[in-house]
Structure formats: C-alpha cells, structure tokens
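User: Could you check the structure of this?
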Amino acid sequence: MDKIKRTEEAVEIDEQKWVNDSSFDHKGRVPLRGSTGVWKASLFIIVIEFSERLSYFGLATSLIIYLTKVIHQDLKTAAKNVNYWSGVTTLMPLLGGFLADAFLGRFSTVLFSSTVYLLGLILLTMSRVIPSLKPCDTDLCHEPRKVHEVIFFLAIYLISIGTGGHKPSLESFGADQFDDDYPEERKKKMSFFNWWNFGLCCGLLLGVTLIVYVQDRVSWAMADLILTLVMASSIVIFIAGRPFYRYRKATGSPLTPMLQVFVAAIRKRNLLFPANPSHLYEIPKSETRLLCHTEKLKFLDKAAIVDGTQDSIVQQQNPWKLATVTKVEELKLVINMIPIWLTTIPFGICVAQTATFFIKQGVTLDRKIVHNFEIPPASIFALAAIDMIISLSIYEKILVPILRQATGNERGISILQRIGFGMIFSVCTMIVAALVERKRLNLVHKKNPLEGSSSMSVFWLAPQFLIIGIGDGFTLVGLQEYFYDQVPDSMRSLGIAFYLSVIGAANFVSSLLITVVDNITQKNGKSWFGKDLNSSRLDYFYWLLSIITAVNLCVYVIVTRNYSYKNVHCKSTMSVADCNDADDREAMA
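Assistant: Sure, the predicted structure tokens are below.
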C-alpha cells in the first residue's frame, strides 16, 4: 500500500512539474508547467490580437463612409461591398484554420498571416500617401482615380487574407496554453475566452474612437500609418514571447479520418451491431484524448465494428476498413455542429447591421457633444465595445461565481445556454433599431428635407448599440468557446474558423437579403433601399430582421434541447459505465 501511495504521489508531482498533453516548448521538449503557458504566454498573444482588432475595426467601421464619400458609391452598393469584404474576411479563416491544423502549425500560421496583414496595411498607406495612387490631387474628390480603387481594394482584401490565417490560429494558439487535463489550468481556460474578448474590445474601442477620429479630423493616411506601426510592433512582441509558448504539431488533414469513417461505415452497412458498445474497436493507449461512445448517429458506429470474417490485424492496419470509436465520435461532433452553426447565422445578420446601416444612420444625426466637438459617425460603435467590456467583467466576476454555486456547473451556465441568451438581445436590438429609425424618418418628413434629422442626437442610437454589445458578450464569446471546445482536438484552429464563418456567412446572407428585399419591394411600388437613408425604409427592414431572429430563436431552442456535448475519457481505463456517468455530467455543462 505504501508503495502504491508513493507511486501516486510521484505521478502527482510529475503532473505538477511537466505538461503531458502532447505539447512541446520552443526547443521541442516536454514543457515545464511553471515556466510555460497559462497567462504568462497568453498575454503576448492577447497583445497581437489587440493590435489586429484595432486595425480591423478602425477600417471596418469607416469603410462604408469611405466608399460613399471618397469613392462615391451609392448606399446600397456600399453596404453590399462592406458585407462582401466582411464576409470574405470572416470566411477566409476556414482555409487558414485548415492549413494551421493540417500542415503549418498555429505559431507559424500566425506569424506568416500577420506579415501578410502588415503588407496589406503598408499598401493601404501607400494608396493614400503616394501622389499617383491617391484618390485625386485635391482634398475633395468628385471622381477618384481608378488606380486608387484597384490598390485600395487589393489592400483591404490582402488584409482579409492575413486575417484568414491570423484569427483562427491565434485564438486557438492562446487556448492551447492551458492544459485541459490539469484542473487548475482548465478553470483558467474558461476565463481565457472572456479576457481574450476583453482585450479584443479594448482594441475595438480604440479603433472606433482614436483611429476613426484621426481619419475624420487629420487624414486617412495618418490613421493608416498608425495602424501599420502598431501592427509591426505587436509582431515583434509576439515573437519575443516565443520561449513561453506551448506548441502543438500539425497532425495532417483532419478531414481524411472523417472520410475514412464514412467509407468504413458504408462498407460494413450489413453488419449487425454488437450487443455491448465496449466490443467496438478502440486503441486503449493513444497520444490523443479518447472519446466515449454515444448512441446518436448510430449508423456511423458500424465503422468501428471488427468484421469477424476478415483478418483483424489487416483491418487494424487499414483505416478505410476499421475506425476507432474516437474517430467515429469526432465525426459525430462535427455533424452535430451543423444545426448549431445554421441557427446562429440570423444573430450574425443582426451584428452585420452595426457596421453598415447603424453607422450610416449616425452620419445623418447631430453628433455634437460640446460646442465645437463633433464625434465621427463610426465612433458611436464604441458604445457596443464599452458595453461588451462591462458585461464580460460582470459576467466573469459576479455572475459566474453565483451561477457555479447555484448549478454546480464549472461554467455557471452551459455554452449553448449562453449563446441562446445573447440571441434574445439580438431580437431586442432590431426592435429598438426599428423604433429609432421610425422616429428619425418622422423628423425628416416633418422638417425641411435639407435639414433632415440633423436636430436628432446621435445618442438615440445608443440603446441599439448597448443592447447588441450585451448580446455579443453572451453569444459571440459563447460561440468561440463552443467551436473551440467541441471540435476534435486536431481541429482546434478550424473550430475557431467555424465560429468566424458564422459571421462571414451572415454578411453574405445579409447582402443577399438586401438584394431580395430590394427587388420584391421595388416591384410592389417603392424599394426599402433608396439612394440615401432619407429615401429608404430601414425601419421595415429592421422589423423583418427582428421577426426572422425571433423565429430562429425558437428553432435554436428545439435544436439544442437534445444536444450531446463532447465526452472525453478521464483515463484510458475508463469503462463504458463511467462514460455514461461522464455523459450525464457533461450534459449539465
């Protein structure tokens, strides 16, 4: 007994000293727990995220203003171009995440994509500094040079490509700094996504205030130069943190094992299921974490049945004929994510309005705070960032401890519950936005059209920005945690890309919706989208979005009611009964 006790103590000491989660340090060794990872590494990572978000929101929130004022596009065309750019920017991470997980590794992908991002910022600065590339030779442009348009769009789409590798790899790389199998680090990891978004919001806040102010009052070129210097500095800081990081090897294409499961299941479609799930094939000792068997999508389980009519050794050597339970369950995880992904798109459509029509509304309102100080239209977006920072702090420091005691759940509430709560706020946002826009239009129709709604304060838009900020704190952070946590371990970067693709797909759907609504309403008399806001009926469009989001929320509740979370073996010797117990515990989370 003493010998067993001493052995257990030795194992415990070893776990406290070394990180045994298949990660390695910058010299390729097993990482020391005390000198690598956790917050000491994450702070370097959050710094470069702060820089990237500063650049992104400094550009994104002013893009519709630049397209309408400098390039002279009409409102409908400008809104579509903003949505297309945002859509590409948030869908590119699917490619970047795949390359990071399969071939390049997360650190290398972040470094390469950040360099591409920096090149995009340099090109954007050049398009506003070099005389032959500037929109025109005068301060007021009536028709910009075509070469400027080409260079401008090339620069912002180069930034999109950089974001494609940067976003999924950086966030998953940050979460990799915490060991899931070590309780103390696992709790810190649950806080990581909240503090990650805190840093993100700080970058967003400065982007829509300081950077936007420089764009509005100094020059677009000066703003671009600031963003370029900040990004270059953050890349240097990121590289400086290299000795503190924990790294993971690229594991090859994560899609191949899924295809192998499908092929093996189809080959064995005529085989009978074993009486006991423990007879399904699994490798007891593996470098990756093993998953417990679940009863859903049972057809796929046939891939893990050992065919008694064939040589078992030959089967085990051919993954196209025999898959492990873990590989089968990983495919089930991805399939189960599809309904969640689809039912979160309407929330993303609501978020898409904040960078297009919400900002354009601000242009038409009174933006004076004091006598001679007028805030830039895009700076109203700061209210959403401030509210998200406040809501995240309250959630992390007050609500989570209370909810942990009430529910016994480490997270306080489940990930999907958190996402659902945020969706409620998106419905409220569109209702409030519709009412405010109706009030603005009433002023336009009552007063001189030239004066319009300029007597109405821009802070009438504050409620819709504040409400969506709270919704973001629940849903967007919840989506990040969900897609990182619930994907197979070999797809963590792709998991973050799935989260970003919700916003990307939502931007494209938003553009499609604008086109469809425009065509239908134009046929029935007058389009809801005129040449400018005063000739449009955005209030009707906002009511439509509120109805779509409310109906979708009901569908989301139905979809999530029977959702099964990822169920990981605590130990390689865990029995099927233990798995079932673990499944009950995970369902609570």
